[in-house]
Design brief:
Shape: globular
Order of helices and strands: HHHHHHHHHHHHHHH
CATH class of the largest domain: Mainly Alpha
Helix content: over 70%
Number of domains: 2
Distance between the termini: 33 Å
Structural class: mainly alpha
Length: 281
């Protein structure tokens, strides 16, 4: 799963968890051209069977044998509770034994659909959304967003007033290459942010939406709100650095990369930051 690209890491807690548990790096450096291209490209459809087939190539024959037994248990199970149990077993296999994120999230989602509670649906959806916030591949963005949207739509049917669910759905629309009108995702999240400026999840999603669309000044405004409330929010600090970098404001980019470096103990990431700072000087 590791993508060998030069990265200045967007270090939200969830992203760091993914880095250590699933070997996943996040948020590759974008240029003006691929920012624009990401808005116009229609990504091809990614099917879970293709993801699963690739994941199975990375595990041992003994693990594949165990996995086949679990998969057959799902097929044979004719009671909902039995299927839920096996889906969670499959999820835990991919999380704890194989350390591959996508099948873990998928089987967690399948179990949550059968349980059909707001708690399980939103938990499973958040797995996809958290990865969507740091994913760069448009095809994978589409798969993550589509998977999350299915769960969030079901959760909203149970509780139409959950702001976090609405924000997650907005993130899917803005960042996941789904739907024809980005405003469908932006407006509900903006409404929540205007109603409650301290909702930093809404501010983050609006900032990422602005960054994706090349509206760097608007994105910077949102990320600054977060930093004003949480001065050591590494995710927002990195996003500020990248937005200033992308808009060509070298002095502010250096300022925020330097602030980020102070909060990081990883020597390799520190060296990468120093490299980028030197390139900007």
């Amino acid at each position: 799963m590791k993508r060998q690209q030069f990265i200045l890491v967007s270090a939200a807690l969830v992203a760091l968890v993914l880095l250590f548990f699933f070997g996943k790096t996040v948020l590759p450096k974008k240029t003006e051209s691929n920012q624009a291209a990401s808005q116009t490209e229609t990504p091809s459809k990614l099917e879970f069977n293709d993801i699963l087939a690739k994941a199975k190539q990375k595990i041992s024959s003994a693990q594949n044998e165990r996995l086949t037994g679990l998969e057959n248990s799902v097929i044979r199970g004719d009671v909902k509770e039995q299927k839920i149990k096996v889906y969670y077993q499959l999820a835990n296999f991919w999380k704890d034994s194989a350390h591959v994120f996508e099948p873990y999230a998928y089987y967690t989602a399948e179990a949550s659909k059968l349980e059909n509670s707001e708690k399980t649906l939103t938990f499973a959806a958040q797995l996809f959304v958290d990865n969507l916030l740091t994913e760069a591949n448009p095809v994978m963005q589409n798969w993550l967003a589509s998977s999350a949207k299915d769960l969030l739509d079901k959760a909203l049917q149970i509780n139409p007033n959950n702001d976090s669910t609405k924000i997650g759905l907005g993130a899917c629309m803005m960042l996941g290459n789904i739907g024809g009108n980005p405003m469908e995702g932006i407006l509900p999240v903006r409404e929540i942010a205007e109603k409650n400026p301290d909702n930093l999840y809404a501010q983050l999603v609006l900032g990422l939406g602005g960054k994706k669309s090349g509206q760097y000044d608007k994105a910077i405004e949102r990320f600054n709100i977060i930093v004003q409330k949480q001065s050591k929010n590494l995710d927002a600090i990195f996003q500020l650095a990248e937005c200033y970098d992308l808009k060509g404001d070298k002095s502010n980019a250096i300022k925020w990369y330097s602030e980020a470096k102070k909060l990081i103990n990883n020597e390799q990431i520190q060296r990468d930051i120093d490299k980028r700072i030197n390139e900007l000087k």
